[in-house]
Amino acid sequence: MQMKTTPGFKEFFNNEPTPNIAELLEDIPSKCIIGIFSKINAEVSLQSNSSNETQQKCYNFLTQRFTKEQKLKIYLGLKPFFDEDKENFTLFSSLYLVEFIKHELINHREIEIADTTPEQEYRIFIAYLCIIEIVNNK
After folding, report:
1. Within 10 Å of residue 94's Cβ, how many Cβ atoms?
2. Integer Cα distance of 66 and 64 in angstroms
3. From CA 63, how far away is CA 66, in angstroms rounded?
4. What is the pLDDT of residues 73-128, one digit of tens each?
5. Which residues contact 93 (CB under 8 A, 6 or more apart)?
6. Are 9 and 130 in contact (CB under 8 A)?
7. Measured between alpha carbons, how far is 100 from 91 in angstroms, rounded to an integer?
């Protein structure tokens, strides 16, 4: 089994304090997050987890409504890992995706909204990076 590097929040934003996941997600229904990450996990599981094409497809799906500034911030966080060893880097892995889904099942929030906003979707991504951080520190 090949080991892959998956950066967490601190690797992306090394000068920023790690945000509180509950605060990031407080106005976002758990069912939205579970749906998003179930779709990404299905994509990763059905394809080769190491496939750069699959990773790009999942990234594009999750970040499609992010602002240019948000995408640039993420790009700058990803670039060192991507430049260093593109083949041994992954952002979406079932280990972290399932852990995030588990987190949402345990901390379930019933909130009625018509659709998530781009800002909420960005906070979902940030929360995912925090989940990676937690899992990597275990």
Report:
1. 13
2. 6
3. 5
4. 888 888 887 776 666 678 899 999 999 999 999 999 998 888 889 999 999 999 99
5. 4, 6, 44, 49
6. yes
7. 13
Do 135 and 96 contact (CB within 8 A), yes or no? yes
Q: What is the pTM of this model?
A: 0.90
Contacts of 45 by beta carbon, 8 Å cutoff, 6+ apart: 94
Residues in the chain: 138
Q: How far apart are the first and last CA of the chain?
A: 20
Which amino acid is present at 114?
A
Rounded Cα distance between 58 and 47, Å, is 11
How far is C-alpha 18 from the geometric centre of its chain's CA atoms? 14
Q: 96 and 6 in contact (C-beta within 8 Å)? A: yes
What pLDDT, in 10s, does the model give residues 42-80?
A: 999 887 545 778 888 999 999 999 999 999 988 888 888
Name the residue with tokens 């700058």. 76
